[in-house]
Write a structure and sequence with these properties.
single chain, binds adenosine-5'-triphosphate, 2 domains, eight-stranded mixed sheet, Rossmann fold, binds magnesium ion
């Protein structure tokens, strides 16, 4: 049984009315399915606007799914249900790209770390203090740092504090949304190592959202590639990095310097061509160098090639 399972999750946003007075619908997530096992890391990759953060927000319960089910330990998590809210809060935490935004500048670190303990545990004040010290030390900070404010730390230290806050209730899943992209390369490696150590020590499962394929190869067990709200390819990291098959995955690899020379130039260019029926077509049709007639008139389903590998492309019918 998977720790976290998502069945057919879709999220539509109604955007404000256009020139003609009609509201348009943005399909931010379309029928997403995924399974996350205990202690494993699933990476979600895809260009800006592909729906990665929207998916994360539904998992932690700050966006309501339009349809579909999110299950923890095989039990559906209902939106806006008090019991399930608590279950989510204690089991699934999130780390954001910019740690400064997620830490209140007017609140001392110790106070920010204590809040979830007050609300969700029966620890005494003394025990909470101990837990805060232990957690700060666990993320490579010092106990005295609890008396300081967020602006007194560097970006890397602030991300460590954000991680401390995420792990203090000993969650089973952490969703990290571009957790390294605001940091410089040397600090990125330190934070990545910290996340891996915490995973080994605490058995945490990660959903790791990233643009950076080098980092994904280093940290993840499986990978899900999204394009315009849809999963186009999903599988083992080793398999997909050995041989990315979906034309969009190939284009993504072709745009990354260290993988570029393995792919033909035309994949990097991604020239757009007009579509006859954009609604019905494959999400990648307008940029796909292999686009055929049927890709314009219908959308390929995500098919299970085997247990660990799925792809949505007519080339693999
Ligand atoms: N609250 C909202 N209201 C309307 N549209 C939204 C809302 N949130 C997201 N969207 C739209 O949903 C789509 C997916 O956005 P999302 O933020 O999930 O993408 P992303 O993959 O996280 O992108 P990035 O890599 O830039 O962070 C985009 O078209 C975005 O404009
Ligand atoms: Mg995002």
């Amino acid at each position: 049984m998977a720790l976290l399972e998502i069945d057919n999750l879709s999220k539509n946003f109604i955007s404000s009315t256009n020139w003609f007075g009609r509201a348009s619908v943005i399909e931010a997530n379309k029928n997403i399915n995924l399974k996350l096992e205990e202690g494993k890391t699933l990476a979600i990759v895809g260009e800006s606007g592909s729906g990665k953060t929207t998916l994360a927000k539904q998992i932690i319960g700050i966006e309501k799914p339009s349809s579909g089910v999110i299950k923890l330990d095989d039990q559906a998590l209902r939106f806006n249900n008090r019991q399930d809210k608590r279950k989510r809060f204690t089991n699934i935490r999130m780390i954001f790209q910019d740690p400064y935004e997620s830490l209140n500048p007017n609140v001392r670190i110790g106070h920010a770390l204590e809040q979830p303990l007050i609300i969700n545990t029966a620890l005494t004040a003394k025990q909470r203090k101990q837990k805060i010290s232990d957690t700060l030390i666990k993320v490579g900070m010092q106990s005295e740092h609890q008396y300081r404010y967020p602006h007194m730390f560097s970006g890397g230290q602030r991300q460590r504090i954000a991680i401390a806050r995420a792990i203090i209730l000993e969650p089973r899943v952490i969703i990290a949304d571009e957790p390294l992209s605001s940091l410089d390369v040397s600090i990125q490696a330190q934070i990545l190592n910290l996340m891996q150590t915490l995973q080994e020590e605490m058995g945490i499962s990660y959903i790791f959202i990233s643009h950076d394929l080098n980092i994904v190869e280093h940290i993840a067990d499986s990978i899900m590639v999204m394009y315009r709200g849809k999963v186009v390819e999903q599988g083992n990291v080793s398999q997909i990095f050995d041989e990315p098959l979906h034309p969009y995955t190939q284009a993504l690899f072709a745009s990354t310097p260290i993988f570029r020379n393995r792919f033909p130039d035309f994949l990097q260019q991604g020239k757009r061509k007009p579509l006859t029926n954009e609604k019905a077509s494959c999400v990648f049709a307008e940029r796909c160098p292999y686009c055929e007639e049927r890709c314009q008139s219908s959308s390929p389903p995500l098919i299970d090639v085997d247990d660990d590998f799925k792809i949505a492309c007519f080339k693999f019918d």
